[in-house]
Design brief:
Elements (H helix, E strand, L loop, with lengths): L5 E6 L3 H12 L12 E4 L4 E6 L4 H6 L5 E5 H10 L6 E6 L5 E8 L14 E4 L2 H10 L5 E4 L15 E6 L3 H5 L2 E10 L1 E6 L5 H22 L1 E8 L3 H6 L8 E4 L6 E8 L5 H9 L3 E7 L6
Helix pairs in contact: 3-4
Length: about 300
């Protein structure tokens, strides 16, 4: 890494790449990437973006080539298990997007219906270390067949009895006559960094970017709520506000028996919550999205 600029590794294409770039954009960073451009300089802070294969991101961060990386938890944990003694990257922030799960699946009409029925069977996967750890933890004696792709066709080709693969909607499993047995790992996008201290300049960039990311994630999950409340119902009404710590209570001009309540709700505000607020005496209830937050 350059002494004056930090490098962050992102997946070069795919859904994770798109959502990672959207997050950085929401953090106020402009990334003008040309076609096939692998390294982009960010203007707003001393940060360079390196676009690589997702499989390479944990190693780049672990070896200090990049000070940050955004990668799926499935890839991160697989690489951690693959190189347990020489792996030097750690999770800095869970990002909440690109959610999927690593799941075991088997033919719908077959005898494999639980993890225990895998004993003596062959399981095809592109995640042999995660699958191996899962089997060892449950003392299951099954053979792991490593494949580089097209795992879902392995049972049909009679080269495996079951598979362990990433699942989002489950449509691919259904299309190949497979049913999900159990989840091996729930995965989401992670912000990772080396597990050793970096230079003061690089640590400063990490702190600035992490603050923006946390503020962006909080804003996505939070809502600003405004309402009018009778003074004698104030305690009951504020107790209904989800994830609210200290609402602001203001006098309401011309209505001595009512107050205006402003609050940041850090949980989803459902229609049912609004109906409960109204039933408790609240009126003029307004829910607004929050674009940015900083503590």
């Amino acid at each position: 890494m350059r002494q004056d600029r930090l490098c962050i590794a992102l997946q070069k294409s795919g859904r994770l790449a798109e959502e990672s770039l959207a997050l950085l954009k929401a953090c106020g960073l402009h990334i003008a990437r040309g076609k096939d451009q692998l390294l982009v300089r960010v203007r707003e802070i001393p940060l360079d973006v390196l676009f690589v294969r997702d499989d390479d991101i944990p190693a780049f961060v672990s070896r200090g080539v990049c000070g940050l990386g955004i990668v799926g938890e499935n890839v991160f944990q697989e690489r951690r298990l693959e190189d347990s003694s020489g792996f030097h990257a750690t999770i800095l922030q869970r990002l909440g997007f690109s959610a999927c799960r690593l799941a075991l699946a088997a033919p719908e009409e077959g005898p494999i219906t639980t993890p225990e029925t895998l004993a003596g069977k062959t399981v095809a996967t592109t995640y042999p270390h995660l699958l191996g750890a899962f089997l060892r933890e449950r003392h299951l004696d099954a053979t792991v067949l490593t494949m580089n792709g097209s795992v879902e066709v392995a049972p049909r080709l009679k080269i495996a009895d079951a598979i362990c693969d990433l699942v989002a909607s489950g449509a691919t499993l259904a299309a190949n006559g497979l049913r999900e047995i159990t989840t091996v790992l729930n995965s989401e996008a992670l912000l990772i960094r080396p597990d050793i201290p970096l230079s003061p300049a690089h640590e400063s960039v990490i702190t600035r970017l992490l603050t923006r990311i946390k503020g962006t994630l909080q804003a996505e999950d939070s809502k600003y709520i405004m309402l009018h409340a009778p003074r004698d119902h104030l305690a009951a009404i504020t107790a209904l506000l989800p994830g609210c710590e200290s609402p602001t209570v203001l006098p309401l001009q011309g209505s001595p028996d009512k107050v205006a309540v402003h609050a940041v709700c850090r949980e989803t505000v459902f229609w049912e919550t609004m109906e409960q607020l109204k039933a408790a005496g609240a009126s003029s209830i307004l829910i607004l999205p929050i674009e940015k937050m900083m503590g």
